[in-house]
Design brief:
By secondary structure, the chain is α/β, with parallel strands linked by helices. Helices cover 33% and strands 16% of the residues. It has a seven-stranded mixed beta sheet with strand order 2-1-5-4-3-6-7. β3, α2 and β4 form a beta-alpha-beta unit. The N and C termini lie far apart (92 Å).
């Protein structure tokens, strides 16, 4: 009888001891994962506000408007409809798994630092993982606004399937040039901006 009672009481005593021990231990915060780290990219809210020192659209044949497509911002917040983006703007479509994309990202970062309120530099991370994009942003010091397009809807709307892809948009939100020639450097970017947007950098 006593042995059976001991068999019944031991699990109860162990459970009670375990609960007490757990309750007294302070909770440890979970280690930060890559996704929980602060985003290296800027907020997307300014994308719908015209750059302070923007020049009017240059004369010449205007292209199509940006597609009526809404993309999420890497940092969260309100999604951005591309039709609401205020130009002039340089849009860089890239992915972390694309070597030419990684090669040209520092040039786009330097371009964004030289914008001086005359134009915007915008990233569109396409067909990529959030962790991959975050890692590249951190490694390369990329901090311009970043939109997410994991289903490559932007490229499909433009009928392009190239990585990297650069889209130049004028002050009226019209596409002036689309470049899919490979990794761009500082000199090539400067030449494209002057030729298609009338902006010198």
């Amino acid at each position: 009888m006593m042995r059976r009672l001991a068999y019944l009481l031991v699990p109860l005593l162990l459970a009670a001891a375990g609960c007490t021990a757990t309750a007294e231990q302070p909770e440890r915060p979970a280690p930060a994962t890559r996704a929980q780290r602060p985003s290296p990219f800027a907020d997307c809210t300014p994308l719908t506000v015209a750059p302070a020192a923007a020049s009017p659209a240059p004369a010449g044949k205007a292209g199509e408007q940006l597609p009526d497509l809404t993309l999420n911002c890497f940092t969260g917040g309100t999604p951005v409809n591309l039709r609401d983006v205020k130009g002039p703007a340089v849009i860089n479509v890239w992915a972390s798994w694309c070597p030419p994309c990684r090669k040209e990202l520092p040039a786009f970062q330097r371009l964004s630092e030289r914008a001086d309120g005359r134009f915007q530099v915008i990233g569109v991370n396409s067909r990529d993982s959030r962790g991959g994009a975050q890692s590249i942003g951190e490694d390369y010091g990329v901090d311009f606004p970043m939109l997410l397009d994991q289903g490559d809807a932007f490229q499909r709307a433009l009928e392009r399937n190239a990585f990297p892809l650069t889209v130049l948009v004028d002050a009226d939100g019209r596409i002036r040039h689309t470049d899919a020639t490979g990794a761009l450097d500082d000199a090539r970017l400067a030449a494209l901006l002057e030729r298609h947007l009338g902006v010198r950098v």
